[in-house]
């Protein structure tokens, strides 16, 4: 049985399993598939969510609102 040539054998980095899966999906679904369009919209919504968190934090800092200080736990005796 002939030896399988890998990326490492050719001096290349090993292929990422995620990249391999996405490459396969791209081959199967094509560039204009509903799946691909949905994933692009999901990525946009995720980034908008992050932007919203950042905007809220920036607004709080500009208003001078401090983050609440974390209190340490205290020991309570139980009867």
Report on this model:
The chain has helices at 17-29, 34-63. It has 79 residues and is mainly alpha-helical. The protein has a domain at 32-62. It is 54% helix and 0% strand. It is elongated and about 75 Å long. The longest helix has 30 residues, at 34-63. The chain has 2 helices and no strands.
Oligomer: single chain
Helix content: 40-55%
Sheet having the most strands: none
SS summary, helix count: 2
Average pLDDT for all residues: 81
Global Rg: 25 Å
Report how far the terminal alpha carbons are from each other.
75 Å
Number of strands: 0
Helix and strand string, N-terminal first? HH
Poorly predicted sequence stretches spanning 5 or more consecutive residues: none
The shape is elongated
The helix-and-strand class reads mainly alpha
What's this, in brief?
The chain is mostly helical.
Secondary structure elements and pairings:
Layout lengths: L16 H13 L4 H30 L16
List keywords for this structure.
single chain, mainly alpha, 79 residues
């Amino acid at each position: 049985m002939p030896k399988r040539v890998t990326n490492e054998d050719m001096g290349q980095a090993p292929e990422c399993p995620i990249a391999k899966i996405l490459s396969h999906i791209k081959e199967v679904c094509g560039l204009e598939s509903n799946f691909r369009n949905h994933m692009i919209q999901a990525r946009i919504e995720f980034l908008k969510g992050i932007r919203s968190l950042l905007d809220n934090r920036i607004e709080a800092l500009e208003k001078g609102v401090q983050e609440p200080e974390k209190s340490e736990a205290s020991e309570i005796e139980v009867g």
